[in-house]
Design brief:
Distance between the termini: 55 Å
Structural class: mainly alpha
Shape: elongated
Strand content: 5-15%
Largest sheet: 2 strands, antiparallel
Number of domains: 1
Radius of gyration: 21 Å
Strand order of the largest sheet: 1-2
Order of helices and strands: HHHHHHEE
């Protein structure tokens, strides 16, 4: 069994774990450094991430990644917030909620 000193020496010689860096995390950090409202920066990060992780169509990625994402959240924050929240709720406009007399129903708009 190795001594405590051997274990400590091995731990110190190995590089420290660094979690992966994702472009949406970098985007959020830069948006916050640029003065964007923290809630909008968090929303922007979520949209950026979902657009890539869920493979949204390129036409949607154009408005969910740089530079359009930052421009929309900066120039028209309320409209952008509503738009991006709708995109998150519907997974890039793939799903919709239909209201009827019996309640709400979730339908799939397309199978991308």
């Amino acid at each position: 069994m190795p001594s405590t000193n051997d274990q400590t020496d091995r731990a110190e010689s190995q590089p420290a774990y660094e979690p992966p860096r994702w472009e949406w995390d970098d985007w959020e950090r830069e948006a916050l450094e640029g003065g964007l409202d923290p809630d909008l920066a968090t929303l922007g990060r979520a949209v950026f991430r979902e657009a890539i992780q869920h493979n949204w169509p390129w036409s949607l990625r154009e408005v969910c990644c740089e530079p359009t994402l930052g421009d929309m959240l900066t120039r028209a924050p309320q409209a952008a917030k509503q738009f991006y929240e709708a995109m998150l709720i519907t997974d890039g406009f793939r799903l919709a909620f239909v209201e009827s007399e019996t309640g709400s129903e979730l339908i799939e708009l397309c199978n991308l």
